[in-house]
Amino acid sequence: MDKIALLKTFVVVANEGSFTRAADRLNTSNQLISKYVAQLEKHLDVRLFNRTTRKIHLTEAGQQCLLHANHILESVNDMEGQLGLLNTHAKGVLHVSAPVSFSTLHLSSALAAFQQAHPSVSVNLQLNDRKVDVVEEGLDVAIRAGHLSNSALVAKKITTIHLALCASPAYLEKYGAPSHPSELKPEHYLEYAYVNYDSDTSELMKALKTNAQKVTPKLVANNGEVLTNVAKQGDGYVLQPTFIAADALTRGELISILDEFVPRPISLYAVYPHRKLVSNKLRVFIDFLCAYFEDTPYWDKRLPRG
Description:
Elements: H1 3-16, H2 19-26, H3 30-44, E1 49-51, E2 56-58, H4 60-84, E3 92-98, H5 100-117, E4 121-127, E5 141-145, E6 153-161, E7 163-167, H6 169-175, E8 189-192, H7 203-214, E9 219-221, H8 224-232, E10 237-241, H9 242-251, E11 255-257, E12 266-273, H10 280-293, H11 298-301
Parallel strand pairs: 3-4, 3-5, 8-9, 8-10
Antiparallel strand pairs: 1-2, 5-12, 6-12, 7-10, 7-11
């Protein structure tokens, strides 16, 4: 049996968790399924499953094999699509990782519009602000903001993200508006837990880093929406991307300060494993996001200009 067919059989067994269910799905016999898995194990010289009388479980080697097999089969399917079925619609399941606040505030509406345009594509969305391992976790694409470190991943810019240092009108009335980062009160700093102070050499980032080291920030949180809501109550100042702060800035609930010292804009990227062939579903998804958000996103177009 050819290796592609062996891999397809192995993937079905792994997904079904049973030789019997895999045989039913593939409309063949249990004995033939066992034979094909045994042939693949012999070829790879590893055990792919731990077998008991009632259940089967992937071994560590089996888990690694499943990741590679999925990528290989997806590439084969995409090759067939690009060479012979260029006019077919994008289809399949797209596994996506994205930041929490960006997803709840903006990506959710983009996904709804995307699936209206491409109803044959299903999306499995995982929300996480940590930088996940795209390959290890079997993802098709991760949405990431910031300055990307050098890696074997491919990065496509989706849009530009501006930052703003914000405080409420009540806070500024009580403590005054600073004219220089050195005038910021360390005890009033609302700090985002994942901030990377070394990504920018601006005076503001240096001052915020110094303040955080000098005095424990008033609040540290790993969610920007929480920090923004606290700042709106007049309890301090916060550095946030405008995709979080734009509504509060537009309504006057927050005011941007020290604009001339704010770090340079960063980018939002679609990051995916480096492959010679990119699946149709991934290509149309990235192209859709780029067109939906544009280089100047809609939330920045609504910001007050002063």
